[in-house]
Amino acid sequence: MRYCSIASGSSGNCHYVEAGGACVLVDIGISLKAAEAGMHSMGLDPAAVQAVFVTHEHSDHVKGIGAFVRKYQIPVFATEGTWQGMQKALGRIALPRCYTIRPDHGYRLANMRILPFLTYHDANEPVGYQITAEGHKLMILTDTGMVSEEMRDLARGADIMIAESNHDLEMLMNGPYPASLKHRIHSNLGHLSNVDCGFLLADVIASNPYCQTLLAHLSEDNNTPETAWRTVLGVLYDRLGPGNYYVRVAPRNDPSPIIRIGEGGQP
């Protein structure tokens, strides 16, 4: 299994996942040109992508999907609510390439199993994704204001965990955003804070100490990579004690290093 964040943050998100003989993107919230350039820079072939799976309809997750799908003639999978919200953003896509998925129903692509699950966000029908193949599990969990016990159960035992660490609460509350936007971000339908992310990761890492973790979707105004990393590690030390935790931060506008599990990669 291989994973690479092509971009991550409020300005655009795109995830590359390859496993079990399949290769997919989760969200393309950047331009076609940026997606192709990011993939090429990591030795990844955009033409090898077999499908795009969508988390929700906000522009930082969908704005490049239409152009990518039209160029490479691949299918797009999204929930019914997400389709309703993103039709205008995508432009014209031939109907046979548009597929509706249902939360908590698994889908197979080659030997990859993809399970969408509902998240808590101010979108029509947002989801995260659990992807399993070759005995390994990857979780993409961003754009959610809270984490349910069901979501924690899905994440436990993950080998690769892409977790939202959106904001530092003090920076958010003392920052320039209007009160309504601060409330939206901090609400149960907003985004996870660094501390929230740490609590989630403590559960995941307790079940798999070798989990490779990437902190994702950091706010440009209310967080910094250093703040997110230090805060999450502080929570892990408090909850689990000192240890070697495989925690990195996804770059905003550049690809992350490729994370490999199995096939000579990490355990």
Keywords, please?
single chain, 267 residues, alpha/beta, Metallo-beta-lactamase, Chain A, 7-stranded mixed beta sheet
Describe the structure.
By secondary structure, the chain is an alpha/beta fold. It has two domains: 1-105, Metallo-beta-lactamase, Chain A; 144-252, Ribonuclease Z/Hydroxyacylglutathione hydrolase-like (Metallo-beta-lactamase, Chain A, 4-Layer Sandwich). It is built from nine helices and 14 strands. It has helices at residues 32-41, 59-62, 65-72, 80-90, 149-155, 169-174, 179-186, 194-207, 225-240; strands at residues 2-7, 14-19, 22-28, 51-53, 76-79, 98-101, 107-109, 112-118, 127-133, 136-141, 160-164, 212-216, 247-249, 259-260. The strands form two sheets. It has a seven-stranded mixed beta sheet. A seven-stranded mixed beta sheet has the order 7-8-9-10-11-12-13, with helices on one face. The chain is globular, with a radius of gyration of 17 Å. The mean pLDDT is 95.
